[in-house]
Amino acid sequence: MLVPWEHYVPVNEDLSDLKAKYDWAQKHPREAKNIAENGTRFARWMGTVEGFSQLYEQNFLNPLKNVVNAYQPTIPEGYEDTSIIEIIESKGEGQYDIVSRCSELVANSCEGGKVDRKKKKA
What is the pTM of this model? Predict the structure, then answer.
């Protein structure tokens, strides 16, 4: 989110141009001061709820949404019309344990704990 020459004076990683950038700042005090003030404003803004929220959304939430939206589950042959829970439960005793169940239709509808398959089948 930081923009070179707007929020900071860029310097090579190896600092090989540090003296040249320092000399530039000395010869251009008004521009250097504006860049420093822009950087300070940006840092203060990043410390606000609005700034951090934008950073969080842009660098964490949106990329995570892209991963979730791109997920394409592979359904085993013969299970095309079967729910994922039914597939997991059909894979045999002890192979998988369901640790929670949630309904997207009812808020806070998750039930924790392992499913007792013997009770479920009865």
Answer: 0.52
Q: What is residue 97's predicted lDDT score, i.e. its pLDDT?
A: 58
Q: Which of 29, 46, 70 is a domain's end point?
A: 70
Q: Give helix 49-56 / helix 29-46 axis angle, nearest 10°.
A: 80
Domain of residue 112 covers 84-121
> Could you tell me which of 47, 30, 42, 57 has the C-alpha nearest to residue 4?
42
Phi, psi torsion values for 15, nearest 5 degrees: 65, 20
pLDDT band at 107 (very low <50, low <70, confident <90, very high): low
Distance separating alpha carbons of residues 103 and 111, to the nearest angstrom: 9
Q: How many domains does the chain have?
A: 2
